[in-house]
Amino acid sequence: MNPFSLLYYVLSVVLYLIALPLLVYLSFKRKYKKSIPARFFLFNNKRFEKEDGIWFHVCSLGEAKALKPILELVKAQDIKITTITQTGQNEAKKYKAEVRFLPYEMFLPFWIKKQKLLVVLEAEFWYMLFVAARRSGTRVVMLNARISDKSVKKYLQFAWFYKRLLSNVEIIYAQSEVDKNRFLALGAKNIEVIGNIKLAGKISKTKEYEKPLQETIVAASTHAGEEESVLKSFLEYKKQVDAKLIVVPRHPERFLSVYELLKRYAKENSFTLSQFSETKNFDAEIVLMDAMGELNNIYNISDIAIVGGAFREDIGGHNPLEPAFFGCKIITGKHFHDQKELYKYVHHVQYVESDEIHKALMAAKDLPPSMVEEKIDLEPVVKKILEV
């Protein structure tokens, strides 16, 4: 290990010791009860069983979903997957693969077992992951790589650090020319633009629900603060249009708090309210979808999709391809920086502030459904990756 990597490693140990009380506390939180013990204490998180497989590292749900068309092209290989979040872990376990949480950097030099190839998706820049994988004899590739508008300034301020990190990467497959130029500015080499691999994913529903007679609006992948903005707009819209609202929070640990918010609004405005997990129907005027894996099924019966994560500056938006595929009229916020590349391919989207959602709902009747006009072929990309 060179002096810089050794210093970085020592700092990671010091930070671990400082954060230890907080990590123990968070381990008891529902959201982190599996991920933190696995990542920071290696609880039920042993090394991969075999060497010489293909290892994919993703962060969370969206990236884990994006793996599907890739894995279909490398069926014969011994596949390993690491994730950061519990939702990513749950999705990754649907594949025929060894699945683990990625341990904290301090453990990686001892935890990593040599593989043929490590494919890191999007913006997972963990220094010890790249260094320890390379030292083990594992070739490293970045796929669907991006640097968002929001974070580019921070990366450039530490370009000296990211140049060291990226020197361990054999090839970077970037989402766009903008991303390529940003990686070049960080000192990266051997970069190829292939577009966003999420355009290659097959979008489908898992269940067929009967479409409600009323106009159906889904508030999809919402975060704290966004539900209230949607509710206020829906109350105004409901005075003029016979409509119902289905709310699908992004994170399952928020189901209860979101239900309490919906209950207050429903009571104050004499609306009927239900939880899907209890009724299994959409008869109420406001429905909380408190079950996982249902969002595409809801898009399939919705007329308008208010896509969350973009009404708050700190989130960066969520995938618009799914509501567009099902023909929803899309309304989203203006802070969609993490999904900017995908929105380039989706037409007829309204981008509004949170206090303009009602106006967008009223305008939707005169707009065509959103649509996606482009796909990418992953086969030549995967072939090149395997030949690196």
UniProtKB/TrEMBL annotation:
Domain of life: Bacteria
Catalytic activity from the UniProt record: lipid IVA (E. coli) + CMP-3-deoxy-beta-D-manno-octulosonate = alpha-Kdo-(2->6)-lipid IVA (E. coli) + CMP + H(+)
3-deoxy-D-manno-octulosonic-acid transferase N-terminal domain location: 36-199
TM regions (residue ranges): 6-26
Coiled-coil features, chain-numbered ranges: none
Keyword entries, A-Z: Cell membrane, Lipopolysaccharide biosynthesis, Membrane, Transferase, Transmembrane, Transmembrane helix
Molecular function terms, GO-annotated: Kdo transferase activity
Compartments (UniProt record): Cell membrane
Pathway: Bacterial outer membrane biogenesis; LPS core biosynthesis
Main localization category: membrane
Functional note: Involved in lipopolysaccharide (LPS) biosynthesis. Catalyzes the transfer of 3-deoxy-D-manno-octulosonate (Kdo) residue(s) from CMP-Kdo to lipid IV(A), the tetraacyldisaccharide-1,4'-bisphosphate precursor of lipid A.
Protein name according to UniProt: 3-deoxy-D-manno-octulosonic acid transferase
Organism: Sulfurimonas hongkongensis
